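Memo subject: From amino acid sequence to discrete backbone structure tokens
Action wanted: Derive the backbone structure tokens from the amino acid sequence.
How to read it: Take the token row as a discrete description of the fold.
Attached in line: The record itself begins immediately under this heading.
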Amino acid sequence: MRVLTRSPSTIRVLRRWLAAVGVLALWACGASAPPSAAAGPSVASSAGSTGPASSSDRDDEREDEVGLRARARQGLAISPVRLSLEGKSGRERTLVGLGSYIVNAASDCAGCHSGQAGFLSGGNPFFLGGGQVVWSRNLTPDPATGLALTRDQFMEAMRTGRDFHAGATKMLVVMPWTTLRWSSDVDLDAIYAYLRAVPAVANGVPPDVKDGLPLPPFIPFDPTTYTDGDVTRKLKGSHRSFPAHRGYAISPLALDTSSKGSHDDEGRGRGVGVGSYIVNAFAHCNDCHTHPDRTADGSKVNTASFLTGGTVFATPPPLRPVLKYVRATSANLEGASHGFFHEGGDSYERFRAIMHTGTLVDETPARPLAFPMSLVAPNLAKLLEEDLRAVYDYAKEVPATTGTSDVPHQAPARWCAAPADCGSGETCSAGECTGGTCAGDLDCGTCQTCGAGTCQAPAPDSLCVLTAQ
């Protein structure tokens, strides 16, 4: 079941465009302006990004080619719609398949861009407060209402946030291009190729209303440098797909590259780099599992709290009877003491089972994942086994967080339609189970408080409720 309309809070949306404004300020202090669009890169280059191909480069290229073909096959298999592949060369079909793999497994484009009109047809509103609203765009190749961008315009939009709609003077907002901008030219080309191959859907989308937001027209992009993490790093792998070296570069927290095998084709390190690439260029894990996801000035990822959870999400009403939750807090993944990947019983097998079943299999009984992870997990489950393992390997390689960000979080607040939906001794209050015994707030559901030894429903003006995504 997919939610067709989302209304994120103003605070979360403001964080997105404040992040871009922060990057703009850094550019004004000396970063490069965006390069002019160039001809699209080939799917694989015969030379490294920094000079002539060495024997190691050629080995990397062969490995990349094997991975690209496997991902392309998987992408063609998982596309939820029939693709227009007539007249395309084998290489063009490979690019379309790779794009499907990114759109439908590594990322979740349909989560915002699919609606009642059809797959990737757009039309979902995002209300930003003060009368400001943006709509997810129709990404299908419908000539009248769909994606009208050229390849070069698409690349520029993904890299700089420029909005090419007629009359638009402010950059794209809500759309997570600030994450996608770090992906390689090859992979952005693949996304574009897939969008040109999906069935056209005629679905006119209303114009955005965002003139009241203090947004710049775009954020320049330097293709040689990563600036979003704890240190500035050189970017490589622009002409490769799922490049491990680029993954190492775009990890917000620096990874240890000194250990043997950290860059070996056959070593775990290559998987770590690919896992970082998936997590930090496509899966947008930081957006939900880091709170707040950006530094106070919006210029970088909040590495002090990287992937330690704490963001509250309100379960959309249509999903509440299905998931049995009203709201939930994103999990602490990387805390040294309370992080999911640092628990005593952690294993890849547990992680894989959770993604493939959509449930916390290590609990008895296994309970469903909460929104929005309940929608993300089915996509990640479509990743090739080696890529899902790479995500896990990266999560294990991320330096564990200590300090004030490493805390446990409340369990989801449970939904109810009647007292019978709740546990013994609990009541159904305004659609959520309350009244359970507690020694502190942590024993209660998300946003609930412990009073007089029982869990109390949050007040309507609770900051926790009002800032829920």
Residues 413-466 form one domain. The chain has three domains: 10-45+59-197, 225-397, 413-466. The longest helix spans residues 55-78. Residues 1-42, 44-56, 260-267 have pLDDT under 50 and may be disordered.
